[in-house]
Amino acid sequence: MLDFLFSRGRKRYGGYELLEEIARGGMSRVWKARKPDDDRICAVKVLTPESVETMARFKAVFETEEGEIALRMNHPNVIKTYDYGRMRRDAYYIVMEYVDGPNLETLVVLESPRIAEGRFELVLQMGAGLQYIHEQGLIHRDFCPKNVLYGSEDVAKIIDFGLCVPATLQEKTFMARAGTASYMAPEQVRSQPLDVRADIYAYGMSAFEVLTNRRPFPRTQSRSRRMQDHLNIKPLRLRQVCPDLPQELEDVVEKCIAKDRQMRYKSMDEALRDMRAAVDIALSQQG
Fold first, then answer.
1. Quick one: 91 and 119 in the same domain?
2. Which SS3 state, helix, strand or coil, does residue 80 take?
3. The sheet that has 91-97: what strands, in order across it?
4. Are residues 87 and 125 in the same domain?
5. Which one from 39, 142, 229, 280 is the annotated catalytic residue?
6. Do 138 and 85 share a domain, yes or no?
7. Handedness of CA 250, 252, 253, 259 (dihedral sign)
8. For residues 43 and 36, which has the higher predicted lDDT (pLDDT)?
């Protein structure tokens, strides 16, 4: 059970007034909230006590200097973290910037015109946010369209640092296969130690989906099958789905999603440099 305090009929948590629930998952619930002392609107994410591994990850990140890194992160394409804490021994919460828009997964499924119109800018914004996260010494480990919010001002913001780890942490067994199966790098599926190239793989998979409105592997309900596809199935090529996209854009995505991480970009700096050049070509062909 989650602990709430009620004052004059209002629901509060960790000193924040909860206005409405905006998201719910197996590991957390998220509310649009207000901080009473300055009326700032924010989002409060409460981690469920039942999620033991998530609690352990939270402690490892937010009860050390990594939590201070999260609070200091300041980039237009990364959600701002304002505060974190716990109500009792096993009830943790994170207070974040509120974004008045859905995630990219929702927009892709709905085939929203916003995706079609902004797809090139979106892949650049996603890459810029991920590049910044890596510059802070962190690996996201669960980068995907579901974890990118797209607000009314057409700004993409990367969210959900629940699986984030310091880039220096090389624990092979700690939640190694946690994440979203459709975007896991092969080494993540194999529970091998990860580096930034796992995020680069997820970025390439996400860019493919934003650019084409399709995934490079078949959609399936089986999590196990989706993970195995990263190991055994050759992905679709970008221009198989959208022949109007330039070869240069396909080349960047393919290098991001190479099954052998030695063949991928070594950093988001390199990947974003080539992505920007490819997007310039795509825009010039459109014009």
1. no
2. coil
3. 5-7, 10-13, 16-24, 28-35, 40-47, 91-97, 81-88
4. no
5. 142
6. no
7. positive
8. 43
Q: What CA–CA distance (Å, rounded) separates 199 from 177?
A: 13
Say yes or no to pLDDT of 62 above 70.
no
- The domain boundary residue, chosen from 47, 73, 97: 97
At 60 the pLDDT is 57
- State the residue range of the domain holding 62: 5-97
Give residue-wise pLDDT tens across range 125-180. Answer: 999 999 999 998 888 888 999 999 999 889 999 987 655 555 555 554 444 556 78
Q: Tell me, what amino acid is at 251? A: D
- Catalytic residue check, 142: yes
Pair 36, 172 in one domain: no
Please, which residues bridge with residue 258 across strands? none
Record the tokens describing residue 186, joined without a space: 């092969």
Please enumerate in sequence order all residues whose Cβ is within 8 A of that of 211, keeping only pairs 6 or more positions apart, or say none: 119, 120, 123, 238, 242, 245, 249, 253
Torsions phi, psi for 158 (to 5 deg)? -75, 135
| Domain count along the chain | 2
> Among residues 97, 129, 158, which one ends one of the domains?
97
What is the identity of the amino acid at 155?
A: V
Cα–chain center distance at 124: 14
Which residues of 25-119 form beta strands (DSSP E)? 28-35, 40-47, 81-88, 91-97
